[in-house]
Amino acid sequence: MSIRQLIEKILNKWPAKIICFLLAIFLYVFHQVSLVEKKSFVVPLNVIENGMVSHVSQIPSTVSVVVKANSNAVNTITPSDITATLDLDDITDVGKYELPVNIKISDRLMEFDPLEIRVSPEHISTKIEIKKARFVKIKPTLVGEVAHGYEVSGVDVIPSYAEVIGSESMVDKLEEIETTKVLVSNATRDFSTEAEYMPVNKLLDVVEPGPYKVTVSVRPSELEKVFDEVAVLPVHLNKKLTLIKEIPPVSIKLKGSMLNLEKYSPAINVVTADLSKITEPGVYEIQLEYNIPTNFTVLETSNEVVSVQVDFIPENSEKTEEVKETPVKPGESLKAVDFSGGAV
């Protein structure tokens, strides 16, 4: 067959042949599309910042990934086959950047045909600052209340400082980092325990997150308490003398252990006035004596000196005649005896 005859044969009824050719292509594409399915995943977004900068603004922790592949193959794909990263290592200047989300797939997925992967969002905007390291104080987080009558007197941490790495603006403002909870409920004595760094800001990295040794010191609480209307006990007054009126009560302010001071009640002789040097009637200034238990400290008293007035005891009240018992003889009646010595 000559070339001319071949061309005439190809061009014979060419509109129908073109339509058939296009229809065949359509049917092939439709068949291939019918064999492809899509599957959605949510995968973690890893930020790579091993260089000299650090991001400041919040970055999503995950991204959405849509995979299209053969229906048989797509069902075998898992989130572990896909890795999403945001790479900051090549950035050296501060500023605001629009960074692409990089997708990496496992070697197994590289063999799939067809395979299409789309990530959302494709780019992420973030602010970049120079990275800085600094040592800051470690602060234990105490939780609960020690036993009644006790208090926390001190907290020690070993080590006391930790190195923190992050953006310059954040690290400069940071004064301390806190630990996980240290329970002190109902404690009555010193104790030691372990705690770790409590992450509160994902933009900061603590080089040594613990565990740290935490020692809590516990001691009895002190209390200040005022005792009002405390009676003053007069002592060693001459038997011939008497007080004209009672000595007014005083108030005392004491300091001591809460547990001891809460249950303390002043004794009858806690405040005394020594009248042994008074021999004659009159008005005298007497120094008070405070007999406070040694485990308390006297902070304040309302009086150090009191004024007392004494006089002689009246003669008719000094003594009462002693009544002697007289045996009664048979036939005699009892006689009333008065205290002046005469029979009634």
Protein traits:
344 residues, 6-stranded mixed β-sheet, 5 helices, 46% strand, rod-shaped
How does this structure look, described?
The chain starts with a helix and ends in a 32-residue tail after the last strand. The protein is rod-shaped, with a radius of gyration of 50 Å. It is 13% helix and 46% strand. It has five helices and 22 strands. It has helices at residues 3-11, 14-34, 71-74, 168-173, 258-262, and strands spanning 36-48, 53-55, 62-70, 82-87, 95-100, 102-105, 115-120, 123-143, 150-158, 161-167, 176-183, 191-195, 205-206, 212-220, 222-230, 233-235, 241-243, 250-257, 271-274, 282-290, 297-301, 305-312. It is mainly beta and 344 residues long. Strands 2, 5, 8, 10, 11 and 13 form a six-stranded mixed β-sheet that branches.
Secondary structure blueprint with pairings:
Blueprint: H1 3-11, H2 14-34, E1 36-48, E2 53-55, E3 62-70, H3 71-74, E4 82-87, E5 95-100, E6 102-105, E7 115-120, E8 123-143, E9 150-158, E10 161-167, H4 168-173, E11 176-183, E12 191-195, E13 205-206, E14 212-220, E15 222-230, E16 233-235, E17 241-243, E18 250-257, H5 258-262, E19 271-274, E20 282-290, E21 297-301, E22 305-312
Parallel strand pairs: 1-4, 8-11, 16-19
Antiparallel strand pairs: 1-3, 2-8, 3-7, 4-6, 5-8, 8-10, 9-14, 10-13, 12-14, 15-18, 17-22, 18-21, 19-20, 20-22
